[in-house]
Amino acid sequence: MSDLVPKSSMELVDPQAQIIVDFLKGIGLPHDNIIATQDQRAIISQNLPAYIQSLPAEVKHGARYLSKFVVGAGIGLFDYSLNAIWNEVVLDLHKKAISYGLDIFYDAAIGGKAREFYQSEEDLRSVKDAVLLDTCRKLELISDTTHKKLKHILDMRNDIGISHPTNYTINAFELLGWLQTCIQDVLNDRPTEAALKVQAFIQNLKNHTQPLDQANIASITSKIGALASHHCGNVLRTMFGIYVSSDTDPQVRKNISLLAVSVWNASSDETKYRLGLTLEGYNTNLYREKYQLGEQFIQSVGGNSFRSNSERAIIVDGLLDQLLEKHQGWDNFHHEAPVADSISSYISGQQDILPNFAPKFVKTILMCRIGRGINYCRGVSPRGLPYYDRMIALLGDQFTPHALAALTHYELQSKLDSSIAREQACLALAVLKAGVVNQRLVECIDFLITNLPNSGKTVFDSRFKTLSSGYISW
């Protein structure tokens, strides 16, 4: 009786590849460059089995798309494998969002009236991948570095994955690198300690139906004060959502009212203005009970000055969300302009830029004006460009500091890594300068126009900090 010679699992898959090619050829279908070449499959065969075997059992358990990745990579369908591992990443980020708390996640991810349609785990499927990544970064479920890596993989998946037409050929080392990023930085990763504290606090707050004593309040207040302002903003939005919910226990509302002032004081003005917009939305849509409870909450924290002045603020805020979604979406050059036109119709002069949405307005318009940093149309929507320049020209002395401060934000800094984006930023600053009278602000803009082409980090230069110290809190 002859002995069976054991073969590695990938060796068992690889011979099928040529059979598939021969079959395609036999039935008259295209067969060139459908699957990876034998040398590329050999690289996968040599590296993938040991790497998969080294993963913890809890990572591999239930990872069905990881199995599909292995099958696709073994046969040589690398574009299919890229889609498969991306799907595994999305499912894992969904799990992280559920563990963190869907209320907090949806409050951070979904703006305007659309928020009420996102409640359950199933609704996560409707959250776009780019929004999912951005929200996970904001909530510190993934790091800034991981966010950049995953944005690149998402771009590759959209450009060269099997779900989109392409002639690009993925090589084995690219595929293995993306796999390693997805596993090490997502599937094997845990949220930050601050994120876990927020998660635990919200969960305990919702379930604690006993009165809080002064010792509890003092302890919680001190811990809230130690959190970063964006975490406080997440807590504030979620506390507000719990407070206005009809099925919230009255004692939980009482506990929230005792803690809300400290959270409110530790949160950014942008978060407070957004709550004011949400409150007016309840009134506009005839949610009487939610509106009355929301008024109680706003009054309990002394926040009436942050309530919306008009319905226009709600409309513009929603349009800014739409514009950012179009900017980050597929074929953004075509889809940005109609939304930019709608926003522009509400901003006929500087007086129409209300404090409620000014920071978000300036930041969003700048992001779109600076563009995607690609060669095509120098990264900016050709039809959207006139609208962006017109609105930037309206900022003047009053809102130019918002524009300068926005250039320090993560979202714009990540764009300014590109030389094309820096070129567009300088053009936007030239438009901004034309409407500025204040000579110190002009000097700040001139400094950026001179130095920004060399580095996106120019805004953190000590000389610029000194120039702008009267307008930006460093």
Characterization of the model:
The mean pLDDT is 88. The protein folds into 3 domains: 161 residues, no CATH class; 114 residues, no CATH class; 158 residues. It is 68% helix and 0% strand.
- Approximate helicity band: 55-70%
Beta-strand content = under 5%
Give the radius of gyration. Answer: 26 Å
Largest sheet: none
Summed up, the domain count is 3
The number of helical segments is 25
Helix/strand order = HHHHHHHHHHHHHHHHHHHHHHHHH
* Overall pLDDT level: 88
Weakly predicted, low-confidence segments: none
Backbone structural class: mainly alpha
How many beta-strand elements? 0
Distance between the termini: 80 Å
Overall geometry:
globular
Give the secondary structure arrangement, pairings included.
Blueprint: H1 9-13, H2 15-26, H3 38-53, H4 57-60, H5 64-75, H6 78-100, H7 102-109, H8 129-138, H9 144-160, H10 172-187, H11 193-207, H12 214-225, H13 229-244, H14 250-266, H15 269-284, H16 288-300, H17 311-328, H18 332-346, H19 358-370, H20 385-393, H21 396-406, H22 410-415, H23 419-434, H24 439-451, H25 462-468
Helix pairs in contact: 3-5, 5-6, 6-8, 6-9, 6-10, 7-13, 8-9, 9-10, 11-13, 12-14, 13-14, 15-16, 15-17, 17-18, 17-19, 18-20, 19-20, 19-21, 20-23, 23-24
Summarize this structure briefly.
This protein has 474 residues and is mostly helical. It has helices spanning 9-13, 15-26, 38-53, 57-60, 64-75, 78-100, 102-109, 129-138, 144-160, 172-187, 193-207, 214-225, 229-244, 250-266, 269-284, 288-300, 311-328, 332-346, 358-370, 385-393, 396-406, 410-415, 419-434, 439-451, 462-468.
